[in-house]
User: Fold this.
Amino acid sequence: MHFINERVNDARKAFADAKTAFIAANAAPRRHAAALFGLGFIAYASGDAKAAQQLLTEGLRKDPTFVDAYVALGDLAAESRDKGRALANYKKAVEVAPEYASAWFTYGAAAADARAKAVAKKALQTYLKLAPSGDM
Assistant:
């Protein structure tokens, strides 16, 4: 769950921003999505995967281009061994942000785990084009 570990500090900030975003009735959809992502992350870190999934999904309703939410939903699904749902969320992440190398890597790894060899090959080749030195 490398993605989750890397986002602890982002989640703390998003949680603080959530207080402000939800007070302001006319806050931008992206701001709401970021706040919900932070709250979802905190729910996950607290051991409540169901609440995390609900908050992330709600955030995507506010801003369907919030790529980190798709990756996090993919991570949640992968952790629960729901390979199909994990793959679908990672696929959506690379569709929304085709320049996001880390999402391509995660999509490729999930495809390999699901034994979708052609998808895994394409995703990992795309990752290597975007991050030839292996940097995510």
User: Anything to note?
Assistant: The chain has a mean pLDDT of 86.
